[in-house]
Amino acid sequence: MEGLIGSLMAVLPVGCLAAEADVPEYLRRYKLPEPVLRPTHRAGDFDSEMVDCPQVLRWGDRWLMQYTASTGSATASASRRART
How many domains does the chain have? Predict the structure, then answer.
């Protein structure tokens, strides 16, 4: 395993392995204790069974959340405007 990690580090660009202390606080990743997005469990909703990969995006003066969702038999992506 150590050989594999050394090989990967050798091909990564310089600066790719910055310590978290080197990253501004507003760019640091963190995990909330509870999900911010959950399946609705309502028949017919495109996100009734599964939601995954949420991303918050800024588009002009709007904030959007884009995510992948599933009904159990089909998968789709959606964007929702944040309520402010």
Answer: 1
Copy the structure tokens of residue 49: 């069974």
Closest CA to 52 of 31, 68, 35, 33: 68
Distances in whole angstroms, Cα of residue 1 to Cα of each of 17, 34, 79? 18, 33, 40
Does the global pTM surpass 0.70?
no
Tokens of 24: 């501004």
Mean pLDDT by 10-residue block, N- to C-terminus, for the chain (84 residues)? Answer: 43 50 77 85 91 86 87 79 63
User: Would you call 55 helix, strand, or coil by DSSP?
Assistant: strand
The residues with which 68 forms a beta bridge, in sequence order, are: 52, 77
Domain ranges, residue 29? 2-81
